[in-house]
Design goal:
The structure is a single chain. This protein is α/β, with parallel strands linked by helices and 264 residues long. Helices cover 38% and strands 10% of the residues. The chain has a 3-stranded parallel sheet, covered by helices on one side. A two-stranded parallel ribbon has the order 1-2. α1 runs parallel beside α2, α2 crosses α3 and α8 packs parallel to α10. The longest helix has 18 residues. The chain is globular and about 45 Å long.
Length: 264
């Protein structure tokens, strides 16, 4: 649930929290009432650790905690069986007015919640882009080899394990996690992504191995949602085009068939 209507929050280049949080609660009450028993889970917002997804303002775990708490109360009142999933954060090490590192945001969020996620979410959401690294590469390996992997812990699919340690630190290990976005890009044109591009065949291999790694090593993991099935309107100029497992015309890339054939 994101991308507010203009009347709810104006002046954002992309999206931002409603000016009046009660408007958000009212909307969620209407949705959860209408679709009671039909929508299994609600993810609240997306990557609030980026200013571009927070009305171009400095990311605020405090404000996001308020959003989570408001959303949780509204959804649970309308549909007690629905699950509430926290937003996945963008894996980043940038710490300024444009972004907050994902691990720092999660840690601050737990502090705001008093170390207790009850009343805020049922499942912790994360994002887990693989960058250049194969799915088995650890955050330690990625941080130690800048030339090969980029030199940061978050440049790996297993960044999830760093975030899990934060949950454990605050005694929240009983709750599940959900990977709400993950994948590898084959980008040939965008400088911000081209440096960690893989081939389409590598993408297929890595995605299958990522599911296999998680099944073997992450007993706390629930949903894992890869990106993307391509939008018909996407063109190579759109960075999403290169993450997809299909082409905009609906034809399949290697990852589609590899995932279809993967033992479930």
């Amino acid at each position: 649930v994101d991308h507010q209507p203009e009347w709810a929050r104006q002046g954002c280049s992309m999206m931002g929290p409603p000016t009046n949080m009660q408007d958000f609660a009212d909307f969620l009450t209407a949705v959860a009432t209408r679709y009671k028993g039909r929508i299994r889970a609600y993810e609240i917002w997306n990557e609030p650790n980026l200013a571009r997804e927070w009305c171009d303002q400095k990311p605020s775990p405090q404000q996001y905690a308020q959003m989570l708490k408001t959303a949780y109360a509204a959804i649970k009142k309308a549909d007690p069986d629905a699950m509430v999933i926290s937003a996945g954060m963008s894996p980043t090490g940038t710490n300024d007015n444009t972004a907050m590192p994902d691990d720092m945001f999660y840690d601050e969020l737990y502090k705001v919640m008093g170390g207790k996620s009850d009343g805020y979410f049922d499942v912790l959401g994360v994002h887990a882009a693989g960058f250049r690294a194969a799915p088995e590469v650890s955050p330690e390996e990625a941080a130690a080899d800048k030339a090969k992997y980029g030199g940061e812990r978050f440049f790996t699919f297993r960044r999830v394990e760093d975030i899990r340690k934060i949950m454990e630190k605050y005694g929240d290990a009983a709750k599940q996690m959900a990977v709400l976005e993950f994948g590898w890009t084959s980008d040939e044109i965008h400088p911000d992504y081209k440096w960690h591009a893989v081939t389409e065949q590598q993408k297929a291999d890595y995605l299958v191995r990522a599911y296999q790694y998680a099944k073997k090593n992450w007993p706390y993991m629930g949903l894992m949602s890869l990106i993307y099935i391509a939008d018909p309107d996407w063109k190579p100029e759109n960075e999403q085009y290169w993450w997809a497992i299909t082409n905009p015309d609906g034809s399949k890339r290697p990852a589609f068939d590899a995932l279809k054939a993967m033992p479930k």
